[in-house]
What does this fold into?
Amino acid sequence: MRKYQILTLNQISAQGLHRFPTERYTVGKAVDHPDAILVRSHNMLEMAIPASVKAIGRAGAGTNNIPVAQMSRLGVPVFNAPGANANAVKELVLAALLLAARNVLPALGYVSGLKSEGADLERRVEDGKKQFAGVELPGRTLGIVGLGAVGGLVADTAIKLGMKVTGFDPEITVEGAWRLPSSVRKANTVEELLKHADFVTLHVPLVPATRHLIDHKRLSAMKHGAVLLNFARDAIVDEDAIIAALRTHRLKYYLCDFPSAKLIAEAGVAALPHLGASTEEAEQNCAIMVVDQVREFLEHGTIVNAVNFPDVEMPRESPYRVAIANANVPNMLGQISTTMARAALNIHNMVNKSRGEVAYTLVDVDSPVDAAVIRSIGAIEGVLSVRPIPAER
It folds into this structure.
């Protein structure tokens, strides 16, 4: 039986790749007809994606480098690893928070510029330190925009440090709400959060609604001398507005993970080189999570943590299974069932779920499904992809 072919576009942690059994999978950067692609930061937006691809796995959370809408039209799920790097990002946010509170970066810059020696050096250190006096975190207010996996961990840590925490997230899930400490105060708008926070940290995905979420108008609502942290996505803020706010001292610091030509030379900016998920543990966690999801999809048709498909799981009760992705329109199940009935196939079990414009169906039948039936199902208007799932080996 043919091995599954997995194309890797970036260096993926070996801890994850080892979860592909070598007797059933070929994994590498030179795979000709991949069944799935694993990616981290590689830009796939202009890439010619092979027609053989059935799934894409992003070893991380964001999928802005993947043509998700195109994959949805082709019936290809795009998996990610939500929460797998959350602790790594949380720790970096905490480091940035402390750097800002104690003015560590300008203080380091001051000391590195000293050329004196002996007593003169000691005098200049003592004289200079006054300008870098900072604040302590207990009692200060941290505003968190986005209370998902990372935002929730940041909230919990900040409270343990004695901070007051205000959060804003109109899309918060029930699970996310349960994870939050009870002392997190809810803000009804971004403006309300910005108005009262000494520090603001952003933890939302980049979607049309969040592009330039922080702009001139919202920055003008912030407390004078507040600090803004962005370890989510660069375009969530308007860089021109950030620069203007820094120059008028509306903002004291902007700390982020996204260097740009505009920002790197600007006073008050501390831009790190995309370090958010750059820990050994995070890379391993992301790889393990996404490899397991891709395997489950290829071997059983199961979908968990796809950004463009519903979660669909069904215990296997038959060795013969068909997976179908289709447009979320009426009478699809009827047409699929009728096609199978005409081929004398008895449906043993079936599950169908939808998400937006896409629906996904798993069907277990009591006898083998030949290629002609697969072609007939694929010919139904609105079917995006269809494949038989091989029996468990």
Notes: The chain has a mean pLDDT of 94. Residues 1-84+277-309 form a domain with the Rossmann fold fold (CATH 3.40.50.720). The chain has 13 helices and 16 strands.
